[in-house]
Specification:
The protein is α/β, with parallel strands linked by helices and 196 residues long. The protein has 8 helices and 5 strands. The structure holds iron/sulfur cluster.
Length: 196
């Protein structure tokens, strides 16, 4: 991937008016991280903090994500973080099918340019979209989190590794341990595909 390609993709997202979410946004949020990226983390959609700042996972869930990454020896600048939708749905409602259809080509372009080894869908919504895209039959996030699924991306083999969304800790504190365990397993998988 060239810097020009990365910039062009970001510019396309920042100026996008393909769906109704462009009308209410402050900023589109393309995502950020190294290019290419070994690990691609994908959330659902920007929230209030992300819409305001233009940065992914900028609020409370982002602070939790930073701690989870630090717990396995990773910093944010070692992973690429984005979301299925690049603009905030009103009042953080669930994304609609036509919004996903409009926005999904940007994620596809990001995957093609970043060429990740591991894609980590965060939360039920992202997991459903990404597992579906790769034709991997998967159940509910409560059943599939913390498990690797092998898939074939256009750039080669990829591991899909769904985890709970970091915000689950604020909505459902008992799931904190499951989320931490998901990240411990992510570390094991990273070590297994690239031994220290
Ligand atoms: S959500 Fe995606 S498709 Fe809709 S306006 Fe934003 S960038 Fe464009």
């Amino acid at each position: 991937m060239t810097d020009e390609e990365a910039r062009a993709l970001n510019d396309d997202i920042l100026s996008c008016t393909r769906c109704r979410l462009s009308l209410g946004r402050t900023h589109a949020v393309p995502g950020e991280g190294p290019v290419p990226a070994r690990i691609l983390l994908v959330g659902e959609a920007p929230g209030e903090s992300e819409d305001r700042s233009g940065r992914p996972f900028a609020g409370r869930a982002g602070a939790i994500l930073n701690r989870l990454l630090a717990s396995i020896g990773l910093s944010r600048n070692e992973v690429f973080i984005t979301s299925i939708l690049k603009c905030r749905p009103p009042k953080n409602r669930d994304p609609k099918g036509d919004e996903i259809a409009s926005c999904k080509p940007y994620l596809d372009r990001q995957i093609a340019l970043l060429r990740p080894c591991i894609i980590v869908p965060m939360g039920r919504f992202s997991a459903a979209v990404i597992m579906g895209q790769f034709g991997v039959a998967a159940g509910r996030i409560s059943e599939i989190h913390g498990q690797p699924f092998r898939a074939e991306a256009p750039h080669g083999p990829v591991i899909l590794f769904p985890v709970y969304h970091p915000a689950v800790v604020t909505h459902n504190p008992p799931l904190r341990g499951d989320l931490e365990e998901d990240f411990r397993r992510l570390k094991e998988i990273l070590e297994s595909i690239s031994p220290a």
